[in-house]
Amino acid sequence: MNIIIAIMLFLGVLPLPIEYYDILRVVVSIAALINIFRGSYIFIPILILFNPIMPVYLYSKPLWVVIDIVSGLIFMNVDEDK
């Protein structure tokens, strides 16, 4: 599951329709929450940034590109067998 989320985050650096980013927020938040329950607390900031209930608007695509890449790398490097 984490690898799919990572790929979605890496695709988020492209100029895609706003609906993709809305879906991305929901999917990343759910995956982050699952990883937090598994004991990977590094996902707490990711959950805060991507939460769809109280969205964080940074109004800077270059900043979101960095966040998407770093978050994708975190999802790729987490052991799902915990």
Describe the structure.
The protein is mainly α and 82 residues long. The chain has four helices and no strands. α1 packs antiparallel against α2 (18-37), α1 runs antiparallel to α4 (61-76) and α2 (18-37) packs antiparallel against α3.
Integer-rounded radius of gyration = 12 Å
Average pLDDT taken over every residue: 94
Low-confidence stretches: none
Order of helices and strands: HHHH
Number of strands: 0
Structural class: mainly alpha
Shape descriptor: globular
What does the secondary structure layout of this molecule look like, with pairings?
Elements: H1 2-11, H2 18-37, H3 44-50, H4 61-76
Brief characterization of the structure:
With 82 residues, the chain is an all-alpha fold. It contains 4 helices and no strands.
Characteristic key phrases:
single chain, about 80 residues, mainly alpha, globular
